[in-house]
Automatic annotation (TrEMBL):
InterPro entries: Emc6, EMC6-like
Membrane topology: Multi-pass membrane protein
Residues passing through the membrane, by range: 45-65, 86-108
Upper taxonomic lineage: Eukaryota, Fungi, Fungi incertae sedis, Zoopagomycota, Kickxellomycotina
Source species: Coemansia reversa (strain ATCC 12441 / NRRL 1564)
This protein's name: ER membrane protein complex subunit 6
UniProt keyword terms in alphabetical order: Endoplasmic reticulum, Membrane, Transmembrane, Transmembrane helix
Annotated GO CC locations: EMC complex
Keyword Aminoacyl-tRNA synthetase: no
Subcellular location: Endoplasmic reticulum membrane
Chief place of localization: endoplasmic reticulum
PANTHER family: ER MEMBRANE PROTEIN COMPLEX SUBUNIT 6
Length: 109
């Protein structure tokens, strides 16, 4: 009987809306952090360390401010949905904007 309660624990449209909002937050912050890294002229591992440091801060803010410290209320797999799952897509967006901004500021001057 516990399995039946687990199936109906979440209302799927609300979970999808929360996931979309989370995706938007991660995408926009990756663009902002990528822009900052490009303008600051970070290259190589420094840029990736900058990304990871900002990723930890943004994920912590989402977990504690937006989710109130309890992400399992808003997402099915809680911490995985908030901090781990969108990491690769966000990293790709970050690298794209980072290299674009670096090229615009430092290569073409």
């Amino acid at each position: 009987m516990a399995d039946t309660n687990e199936i109906y624990k979440y209302f799927e449209p609300t979970v999808q809306q929360n996931t979309l909002a989370l995706s938007n937050i991660h995408t926009l912050t990756s663009w902002g952090v990528g822009t900052a890294a490009g303008i600051l002229g970070l290259t190589g591992w420094n840029g990736f360390i900058f990304f990871l440091a900002n990723w930890v801060v943004i994920s912590a803010l989402i977990l504690f401010v937006k989710c109130g410290g309890n992400p399992s209320v808003h997402f099915k797999s809680s911490f995985m949905d908030v901090a781990v799952s969108p990491l690769l897509n966000t990293l790709l967006s970050y690298v794209l904007v980072w290299t674009l901004m670096y090229a615009l500021v430092y290569v073409y001057d």
